[in-house]
Design a protein that fits this description.
Helix content: over 70%
Largest sheet: none
Number of helices: 7
Low-confidence stretches: 55-66
Order of helices and strands: HHHHHHH
Mean pLDDT: 75
Shape: rod-shaped
Distance between the termini: 76 Å
Strand content: under 5%
Radius of gyration: 50 Å
Length: 288
């Protein structure tokens, strides 16, 4: 299985991100996940991920054994999840703080508006009173005017109360929408992270299985190679022993055959007798 180099680059970016955040657990998880991809092509990136090292630096030729990195992958996705949730929480808190600030400004703003309306009403009535005195209007007209100004002021203050209540209600609705959106975003981020994590763990399981099969095959091949070498050495030794036995037998010495085939004393005696009959002169020399 070939390594996914795009995934390795992504893990390297995550490593740099976690390094900038001081998240050592995330750094370790990102590095381990990248190593899992590199292992598909039987190499390592080293401690910092920037190298290309053979997994067998000893030169023994031993094949790499299968190794599951499921724990490291789970740690990586846990770190990613925590990072996403922290970003969502930060945005939520910031938006809530903005709404709190707006809510805190409402009482003073509407209090100022009420005071302004009352002052405007009082100023308008004072102006009317001055004009009435100048034109000789009776007190009845002044009373009616005062009543009208009071009614207008009351209507203006009531309108301001309604607007303030509506503003408070709007802020409450925005809070509820923000809280709902935050909850939905958390659920979505968790689901996406868990789905990606499940896929990554499945891929790792497949990789580990393939690695185990490859390692087993390599071990079997290595064992067969060693057995062939041993058989070749054994065959060579037997051939040498047989050649020596033949050479000795040509001179009437059958000890080599006795060692190779486990001949008994009776069998050796019979071979010597046959040899002496076929080679009387040589036999007399051997026997002195």
């Amino acid at each position: 299985m070939a390594a996914n180099y795009d995934a390795i680059k992504q893990y390297q970016k995550l490593y740099a991100q976690y390094q900038a955040e001081g998240n050592t657990a995330g750094m370790a998880a990102a590095h381990a996940a990248a190593e899992a991809e590199r292992a598909k092509e039987n190499y390592s990136g080293g401690a910092d991920g920037g190298q290309h090292l053979s997994p067998d630096a000893s030169g023994t030729g031993s094949p790499r054994s299968a190794e599951s990195r499921s724990d490291a992958i789970a740690q990586l996705y846990a770190a990613q999840r925590e990072s996403k949730l922290a970003a969502l929480k930060s945005a939520y808190d910031r938006n809530m703080a903005e709404l709190d600030a707006k809510a805190a400004e409402l009482p003073e703003a509407y209090s100022t508006a009420r005071n302004g309306a009352a002052a405007a009403s009082a100023l308008a009535q004072a102006g009317f009173n001055a004009r009435a005195a100048g034109t000789g209007l009776n007190s009845g007209a002044g009373g009616q005017a005062a009543l009208a100004y009071g009614n207008t002021l009351a209507a203006n203050l009531s309108s301001l109360d309604q607007k303030q209540a509506q503003a408070v209600s709007d802020l409450g609705a925005q809070r509820q929408k923000l809280a709902a959106a935050y909850g939905s975003a958390i659920a979505q981020a968790a689901a996406e992270n868990d789905g990606a994590k499940a896929q990554a763990l499945y891929n790792e399981a497949v990789r580990a299985d393939n690695s185990l099969v490859s390692a087993s095959h390599a071990q079997a091949t290595l064992a067969l190679r060693k057995e062939d070498q041993q058989n070749a050495l054994s065959q060579h030794s037997e051939e040498k022993a047989l050649a020596k036995a033949k050479m000795l037998a040509a001179a009437g010495d059958f000890s080599g055959y006795a060692q190779l085939y486990g001949l008994t004393d009776e069998q050796l005696a019979w071979l010597k007798k046959v040899y002496a009959a076929e080679n009387p002169k040589t036999a007399r020399i051997i026997n002195g």
